[in-house]
Structures are given as C-alpha cells and as structure tokens.
Amino acid sequence: MVLAPLKRILLVGSGGIALVKLPALIRMLRRQGYELRLVLTENAARFITPLTFETLLDHPVYIDPFARRDNLLHIGLRKWAEMAVLVPGTANMIAKLAHGIADDLASAVLLGAGGTAIPRIVCPAMNDAMWEAPATRRNIEQLIRDGWRMAGPVTGELACGDDAPGRMAEPEEIFRVIESLSAGDKRAPYKIVITAGATEEDIDAVRCITNHSSGRMGAALAEAARERFMDVVCIHGALRVPPPQGVRLIEARSARAMLQAVQSEIADANALVMAAAVADFVPDVKAAGKIKKSGSGMDLHLVPAPDILLETRALRARAGFHTTGFALESDALAEYAQEKLAAKYLDAIVANPCSEPGAGFGSETNRAVYLTKDGAREDWPTMPKREMADRILDRVLLALSETKK
Ligand code: C5P
Fold it and tell me: What percent of the chain has pLDDT over 70?
C-alpha cells in the first residue's frame, strides 16, 4: 500500500548550541514543501531568538503553553502533526521524554506524540560525557523501545572543542531521515543486523560454557552503523563493554537464541555482520537444577552448535543482501578466511589473529585481512576497533549502493 507522504512536521527545539543548525533544516524542509510548526523550550529561546525562526517559518513559534490563552495548545499541535522531530535533543529533554515528564509545552506535545504513535525522530546533541553517562544510556534505550527513531549523534567536534561522540547530525542528514520516514517504505534507510559478544551455553542452572569475546568489535560496528544513519539492530550475547548506544538491542544468550533472533531480524534487512563469537559446541542437555559436586569429576558431552551463517543461508540468498563474517585464526589468516568465505556463503570476511598483542578478543585494537567474494584482499594494520568498524561499514554501504543501481 502506498501512502501519501507525511508533510506536516512538528519541530521541537531544546536548549543546546546545536540549535544553530535548525534554520538550515527549516530551509531545506520548506523548499521541499513540508508544512512546519516549531515549539521551543525556554532555554532554546535563549540561544536563538524566536524572531529568527518566525521569519524563516513565516509562522509564530510556540514556547509558553499559556501565552495564547489556549490551554489545549499542546493537544492542537499534536493533532495537527504527522511527524515530530526533536532537534536538538538535549540530555535533559531526552530524560524527560524517557520518563513521560511534561512540564513545558515542548515535552507535553512530544509526550502526546508518543501516545498517537506518529513517527518521531530524536537528534541528540550533547557533550560526550553526558552522552555516555549511564542515565543517558538508559534513557536512549527507553526512547528506542518507545519507537523513537535516532538521527545521530555522530563523532565530531563538540562545543568544548573535543572530537568525540555527541555531535548533532548535520541538517542534510536529518533531512534525509525525515524524507525517508515521510515517504514510508519507499525510501527506508538500510537496515543492518549486527551480532556482538559471546554466547553462553548452559550446562545446568548455574554454570555455562562461554568464551573471552568482549563484544567491543560488534559494539563499535553498531555505533558506526548508527552514525551512518542505518536502521541498526544489535543482537548480543554476553558483553564486557557497555552495549552500543542509540541502536535497538536484542539479547540472545545462546547460539540457538541468537540464531532465532538473526532469522527473524534479517527477514527485512539489507545486511548482516556476524561479529559475535558464537559457540561451536554446546552441551547436549541442560541439567535441571545444579549438578552436585563430586570427587570423581563429571563428563560433559558436547554436540555441534547451530552455525548461524549456514542456517541462514537460504534467507540471505536474495539479491542485494550483504553478509560479512569474521574469522578468528591463530595462523594462516588469509588461507583459512578464504575457505570460510566460500563455505559460509559470505560476501566479505574479516580475519583477525587471536594470538597477537593488539588484536582479537578483548583488545582495544585489531588487525585484519579483509577478503571479498569478488577476490579483493586488503591487509589492515593494527588500528582502534572503531576505525576498523568504519572501514567495514564503508564497504558494506558501497556494496549495497552498487547492487541498488
Ligand atoms: O567457523 P567459525 O566459528 O570460525 O566462523 C566464524 C564466523 O561464523 C563468525 O562470523 C561467527 O559469528 C560465525 N558463526 C556462526 N555460528 C556459529 C559459529 C560462528 O554464525 N555457531
């Protein structure tokens, strides 16, 4: 079913310096024929005078819920809007939305927008320490669960001069996200599924078999994909690093649970990156309760775990779908990776060494050989995992854009 594009957009600006990017966004949207209304918080109105926006919008700006003697202003605006965009989204405003606090016009109207479930976009903008604070992490996770779409933030220059995550997306990028939501499925962003971390296979009620994967590579990939404005789902096992922020998280502890989550999420996705360290062997049965300690030891019988890449082969075998796998090897990196590339029906594989300082499990950095099914080979030197994640995603996006042509 093709729906008419959504054209009535409610913009809400909260008080951060990134508000300076809003005029450019307003210009782009108006040029494209969008009808706009703007609500500012009181703090936002201290950053940029409402008169600037009123001139650009050719319409009054709303700040005080009572100024126009209209007690139902927040409801009227919410009923009018077909989409709501919080730009910029400060840590404070994000916290209020996550908790349903509605103590000014801006937060009240956005709370109502959640109730009617119109498309909602948040463009976070804050200092990196505030972005990474546990409270913000919880709040962002909550907004994603509540159906908010994230546009940014990206890593870049912050108000304090540091180069770090928390910088608001550029107006052109926010415009593209609005356009894609406005047009419905027609211009939906690429959906990417990324697995991360270690699986845990239960032996009994209290013990499990796992591995030393930290999840750092997968988390870096998920954040790098978010910064490329993809629709990101991160399916993760055990993580020893904070979960990636600003993406949809699905916990899947065991190989079987991860297989099920991957199967259901890739059905409508464009790409899969299997960075998780999935068990190769699992106990054949999980004992009920706790196995009693005994002086004579115990036998554990292991059977092969489901291989997620192999089991999803048919689902992935559609035109334009792109799969990247990983290979952790102790020697002959490129040779084993080449075999795995073919055996697991991959488009690309990232082979990294497991017995080298500065690479593999747990390390902050990684070294890799990158191979594609078309025969390309790149030797990547030791670099931060985030930088490697950027390289991998640039190649995924390039491959996706080439098949779309
Ligand atoms: O065969 P090996 O475990 O070396 O292959 C590594 C690649 O296969 C990784 O991308 C990993 O996520 C994936 N894998 C899988 N299912 C398993 C084991 C590994 O999809 N049971």
Answer: 96
